[in-house]
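Schema walk-through. Below, the input block comes first and the output block second. Nothing else is stored per chain. Lengths vary across the set, and this one has 279 residues.
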Amino acid sequence: MKPTKQLRQMLASGQMIVAPFVLNALHARIAESVGFQAVYMTGAGTAAERGFPDVGLLTMTEMVANAKFIANAVGIPVVCDADTGYGNALNVQRTVREYEAAGVAGIHIEDQVFPKKCGFFEGKQVIPLEEHVQKIRAALDARRDPDFVIIARCDAYAVAGWEDTVRRCRAYADAGADLVFVDGIKTAEDLKSYAHDLADLPRMYNGDLLPTQDVAAMGYRLMICGSTIWLVYKQVHDSFEELKRTGKVDPKRFGTRWDVANLLGLPEVYEQERKYGVS
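--- output ---
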């Protein structure tokens, strides 16, 4: 089954999808191996892997390239950050087609000005509501697969307040967005207000304020969990510090090269070598 169809069916099932952040194809394979049914390609993590903070310095080409590696590595749906769509409504159309061609199941497009900033950073600005409505309409018109999921992200809460955020989300849903996504939710009370005031709309949540079970009970359709990538930072930082300080990293900290190679399909490579007589 195509990943887009898989994602559509999961969204229609009534059970919330939990998609951990992944930086790359290896992380996606790990998530799939432990049983997650979808993954989320983080824009912040993609930028970090290339040495940049999440302030809109990566191009669409760089983002799509990472998305393609991730989508090719797993059999579960991949949902991707597509920032602002990298320009106006016409740029959004190309963005949709490029991500769709990469094999991902859906993307979110935000109403920030270009270049954007992380939803939790200071200094965000948003474009007029009507302009983003047109970008959502353009995205829907551009998709070739009707199951490709278009998510309208709203960053207005920190800029213009909650009332404007609710108004924008309703306008984006009316324009045809498959889900709405308010980013920058910082408290459990905000999360509850989000669920209450937009209860009739299919909603996505980004954060780790409450356990997934509690978020699901509020009626959210999709939850992306970013603590996974900051855990990578902490573990790598601490192991490097230990190596510098003691000359050795405790073996309990890490898996083996064989753990990773087997996860990535080394036994299948050996089988193919035998099948085709590759020495």
